[in-house]
Every structure is written in structure tokens, then in C-alpha cells.
Amino acid sequence: MAYKIRTLDEHFSNDGTPKRILALDGGGLRGIVTLAFLAEIESMLRARHGGAESFRLSHYFDLIAGTSTGSIIAAGLARGMTITEITQKYLDLGRRVFQKSWLRQGYFRAFYSEAGLIEELKQVYGPNTTIGDASLQTGVLIVTKRLDTGSAWPVSNNPRGPYYASRPDSQVIANSNYPLWQVVRASTAAPRFFDPEKIEINRGKPGETPVVGEFVDGGLSPFNNPALQALMYAILDGYRVGWPTGADKLLVVSVGTGSADPAMAPAKLAVEHAVKSLFSLMDDCAALVETLLQWMSASPTARVIDREAGDLRRDLIAPAPLIHYLRYNVVLTGESLAELGLKFDDGKVAGLSVMDAPDNMTTLQEIGVRAAERQVRGEDFPANFDLTP
Fold it and tell me: Using CA atoms, how far apart are residues 327 and 337, in angstroms rounded to an integer?
């Protein structure tokens, strides 16, 4: 089956045709799990659209959103890279950047130097590629957080976005002019792991001091799972996208990095308690995002939220489903991994939840591959979302 390759404007167009969103979670080097799921999705969708090697997920999805490590993958996909290409780059990046040093131990300095990460991102995307660059073949949405104002920042290449283009007589720097590598770097600036990224957002008038925002990992907002933010971006009037809702009009595919085992080793120091509490809050936000999206949809992949709420299949926030929603993830517990035919001792299982261990990536990739083979089913992607000739 041949299909038409759409322009960026056509991807973002609110012409009433079905639209497709892909949302990729944060989770450090556990992003290799995301890539394993995406490989299965890419293979399935390629076969459905003729099997040509030229097929890209950027052809299918109209908006690809990512937070933290998910933003690294999202930006690569939006530039038309295959999952094989991104996976190799990702493995290389993980091994080169996440090298521990005794000079960076303790609680008063970031564990890793951002210089190595910046160099890797520039190599992948190009040092001069901006958010508005023509190499971005589809919509991209990168979630970061501006720490000095406390606000989440969804940065997109939507040509109609209110802050996308330069405005006459304004010193505000247009989103389209932000370097792609820098926005991704901002989204990945997890506290303790990397220092914040500083981005100039207003040049100021002559004689005035430029305004520089201090940006950190988007996972510190409610949107470490960016699916809800991406949905809001697509349908709320202020973002100027305006896509229609309905299970036959809007597909949301959300992919996780593996849910961390909540029974990880207990914290021993006050600072460790604070960090673990922060991660727990991030998990709570992620669970709420999943709850809301299942509540809005009749999802074939719906999971049990808790023993009281169930999987929400009998509940609906509106008279009819607002979206067709698919969620892919795996829980990194011994019991869940055993169901995939993988058996590890307790120490190994606990270690898989950390976000900065390059030695885990091969094992996590195997976990992702096995989970994807079980979870990704072609019938869950309705035919009305297939690309047209």
C-alpha cells in the first residue's frame, strides 16, 4: 500500500482528518525499553503500509511528544530516523555520557558533566538545527520545566503556535529559533544527574540585561509521562492546533520506560529520603495521567489502576470516548519479569530500576523486546488511522 508523505503543515492541519499522537516517557537510560516497544510498533505499521524500508514513524504520527529521555527519542523520530538508527545512537550516548567519576560523588555536584551530553546531542541532531528547522518532518513537542518560574514548558514546532515565530518589535526569542539540541538537553537536565540548562528567552532592549531561563528535566513537572500534555496541546484553543476529539478522530499512543520497582532499597540519609520522595511524587503524577487518559477512552490496553477503581472500562468522562488510547509499558518487578520468562535475583531486579546504569541497557532491551512482542497488537490500531494514498 502506497501512502502520501505529508508536510509539517499537513501534519498539524486541523482539517478534520484523523490525527495520531505518540508520547514517550522520561526515565533515564531505561529509555532503551521505549525503543524496544517502538521497534515493534514501527515493524507492524511498516508492514501495514506496504513494507517499504523508507517507512518512518514520522510519516504516521502527526505529533511526537517526549519528556527527558523521551525527548531524545522524539526529536530523532521527528527528524525521520529509524528505530534502529536511534537505538544505536542511544546505546552509544548512554555508554559515553553516564561514566561515573569519583570527582562527582556526593550531594553538592551533579553526577555527570553536561558537556558530553551536549556533544552527543549536537552530533545526532546537528549543532545548528533549530526547533523550526525543515529537517523536522512531523510535529514534535518537548516538555521541560523552567525552574526559575516554576512553570512547565511544552516547546513545539507548531507553525501556528503563539510563540513559534518572531514578532515585530519584540525582543522575545521565538521558539522556532531555539536550538533543538538545547531544548532536548533542558528536558533531560535531571537534578543530581545534570546541571540545569540556561536558555536565553528575551534579548532585552539596548542597555537591558537579557532574560535567561533556568531549565530542568520535564519530569519535574506533572508530565514525565507527556501523553496528557500532548493531548492538551492538540485540543486546547490556546495552543492553536485544534484537532477534533473522538475515538475515530484522535489516536494517542503512550510508551513507558519500565515502571520502577517501588520496593527498591530503603533510603538511609535525609537527602536520599528527599530524592526518593520526589521520584514517588513523579510516579503518582504518571499514575494520574494514565487514570485520566483511560477515563477519557475505551482503551484496549487499559490496566487496573487500583483495586477500587479497576481499569475504568465501565467509566467514561464524556458521553462517548474522546480518544483511542494505547499504553505500552512493563513493570520492573521479579513477578512481572518472570511472566516474560526472565528470572533474576532480587539484587538484579532492584538494580534495573535505576536510571543511570549503562550496564543495564542490554538486559532492559531484552525485557522491552519480550514485553513488546506480547503487548503490541495490530488490531489495537484502528484501520481508520492508516495513512491514505
Answer: 18
Q: How far apart are alpha carbons 266 and 203 in whole angstroms?
A: 47
Decide: helix, strand or coil at residue 357: coil
The CA-based diameter of the chain, rounded to the nearest angstrom, is 65
Using alpha carbons, list the distances in angstroms from residue 108 to 104, 111, 185, 197, 278. 9, 9, 21, 17, 17
Whose cell is 558537556? That residue is: 115
Q: Would you state the cell numbers that stand for residue 383, as one nine-digit string?
A: 484501520
Residue 242 has which C-alpha cell? 485544534
In this predicted structure, what is the pLDDT of residue 386?
97
The pLDDT score that the predictor gives to residue 98 is 85
Residue 265 corresponds to which cell in the numbers above?
A: 532499597
- According to DSSP H, which parts of 180-301 are helical? 180-187, 227-235, 270-296
Q: What pLDDT is stored for residue 97 in this prediction?
A: 87
pLDDT digits (tens, 9 = 90+) for 190-238: 887 888 999 999 998 888 899 999 999 999 999 999 999 999 999 999 9
Q: Which residues of the chain have pLDDT under 70?
A: 1, 100-110, 262-278
224 vs 286: CA distance, rounded Å:
7
- Backbone phi and psi for residue 19, each to the nearest 5 degrees, phi listed first: -125, 155
